[in-house]
Design goal:
Length: 291
């Protein structure tokens, strides 16, 4: 009976694991291999160049611009999303209608979101400038995506808007699991809503917050689709919205430097892995048990 169970499990897993190895692991391994070569992806055989591709990264102004912009996104986007999501989850606790409204952007693809917000930011006929004119704030009108000092912030605003809804639902579900008698005991002891939220709710749902930090940190190191569709260039103006994923894409499919692009991908892979591990360590807290 036991041997039959193991044979059944092996037979059930061999096909999906084979497909995973062929279509997921194999491309990863090929990318690691190509990162040490000079290959145009078409007609010539890969030529081994050692660590030359990796040494070029630190002299590549586009890659460094993307690294800088992704770093700013890493600082701003997760913090803004977590704070807004926690506030909205606490404010709409027990109100499911608002959660549906907040979650709605999750139903749209990234491409649709980018196109919609591109129209919002349109200088002459866009919704944002139109609203400012209607409020009598014509001096605030801007060419939002054409200003080097504003373009990246506009992209980050879209990332935040499109991400908040999911984490509102996640944190709301976590808050509903907090026992009500704990809240009542704190209220009887004279604790105000802010104190209860900071001292009781946050510690009890911290594991969900930690998951949010990690996922948002990984998302902040991407941003390719929004930048590709929304921005001038894309990546402009003056490389103000350049991100590492966009540089990888152009290096491979515009300039035909697949070996160098693979090196970028490997660098982004280890950077993302390091950020995830760092966030796990930084956000680690003692587990709070609920009786």
């Amino acid at each position: 009976m036991r041997h039959g169970k193991y044979r059944f499990l092996a037979g059930s897993l061999i096909v999906p694991l084979t497909l995973y190895g062929v279509f997921v692991l194999s491309p990863y391994l090929q990318a690691f291999q190509l990162a040490f070569t000079n290959w145009n992806g078409v007609d010539s055989a890969p030529v081994f160049t050692g660590f030359d591709n990796f040494s070029k990264l630190w002299d590549d102004p586009l890659f460094l611009a993307g690294l800088r912009n992704n770093g700013l996104m890493l600082l701003v986007v997760p913090l803004a999303v977590i704070v807004l999501a926690l506030a909205l989850a606490a404010g709409t606790r027990g109100t499911k209608v608002y959660r549906v409204v907040y979650f709605f952007p999750q139903l749209l693809s990234v491409a649709i979101i980018a196109v919609l917000w591109q129209f919002v930011y349109t200088p002459n006929s866009g919704l944002l400038n139109g609203a400012l004119s209607a409020l009598g704030l014509d001096s605030w009108r801007q060419s939002w995506l054409a200003e080097p000092n504003l373009a990246l912030w506009c992209v980050m605003a879209v990332m935040i808007w499109s991400s908040v809804g999911f984490y509102v639902v996640l944190f709301s579900a976590a808050m509903e699991s907090v026992p009500g008698d704990i809240m009542e005991a704190a209220a009887i002891d004279g604790a105000g809503p802010v104190t209860v939220f900071r001292r009781i709710t946050i510690p009890l749902i911290w594991e969900s917050v930690q998951v949010g930090w990690i996922y948002l940190g990984i998302a902040a190191l991407d941003g390719f689709a929004l930048v590709q569709i929304m921005t001038v260039g894309p990546g402009g103006p003056d490389n103000s919205t350049e991100v590492m994923g966009l540089g990888l894409y152009r290096t491979a499919f515009t300039f035909g430097k697949f070996g160098y692009a693979s090196a970028m991908g490997v660098a982004i892979f280890f950077l993302t892995l390091s950020i995830a591990v760092l966030l796990l360590r930084v956000t680690k807290r003692e587990r709070v048990e609920m009786a």
